[in-house]
Amino acid sequence: MSVSLSANEAAEAPVEHQAKRYAGLTAETWFRILAPTVIGVLALLGWEAVVRINEIPPYLLPGPVSVFQTLIREWPSLSVSLLITLQITFAALFVAAALGLLLSVLFAQSRIIEMSLFPYAVILQVTPVVAIAPLIIIWVDDIRIALLICAWIVAFFPILSNTTLGLNSADHNLTDLFRLYRASRWQVLRYLRLPTAMPYFLAGLRISGGLALIGAIVAEFVAGTGGRASGLAYRILEAGYQLQIPKMFAALVLVSLTGIAIFLAMSLISHLCLRHWHESAMKERR
């Protein structure tokens, strides 16, 4: 006796394997959101409990409640500093992305140029920015441009190296096919190499987003600028000199949250650019 599915049963069969959704999100997505959230809440509660039970003074270790209250109270000054740091960070990230992409394309077109210039990019990457930041600040009159250069140095190499790797990772069989059809170098670059390098470029962009913020903070520490045109690093130094430890923690929280937000924004951009055609962002079909 043969067993067969009716037309309706066959149509409904794939639906049973689809992941159930709760409030529009799958169970796996909810787990990815809730698991780190629960861990973070438990850590904050434990931190607050340790501070209160041991009666640790705020100038040694403030609790999360004290840090949050300070963040609300000092928001007018911290928000201005945050905006200045963000301006430097995103300007450095934009310059790093544009210059890194252009140089990567140049390297892909000429092996001689790549072998001649890439070692200097490596030297620039492995040199600690904190060591060369004082020289840059001395040589450049405009402090904003000096901070931008320092942040750019940190953010530049991941985009350059990742994109260069992506451009050189084009399938050799497809490259031969393009040559067989007598495609120009521009056509090979546009229709083969650049699409192949797109995931690599976006991966480098995710890395460089956080590095640009780190570079901006380090450069601000070295510069030690004051007044209204001061970033978050100066607020941290200022709070440390005045033993305002809750304010220091509040500024550190802003730096961390900003770094997380930049990473999430870059991840979202990567997903939106790749979700319709690249395997890394497409949903698994079962």
Number of helices: 11
How many discrete structural domains?
2
The CATH class of the largest domain turns out to be Mainly Alpha
Which homologous superfamily in CATH is the superfamily of the largest domain? MetI-like
Mean pLDDT: 86
Poorly predicted tracts of residues: 1-17
- Shape category: flat
Q: Whole-number radius of gyration?
A: 25 Å
Count of extended strands: 2
What is the ordering of alpha helices and beta strands? HEEHHHHHHHHHH
Strand content: under 5%
Please name the CATH architecture of the largest domain.
Answer: Orthogonal Bundle
Protein name: ABC transporter permease
Pfam families: BPD_transp_1 (PF00528)
Membrane topology: Multi-pass membrane protein
Organism: Falsiroseomonas selenitidurans
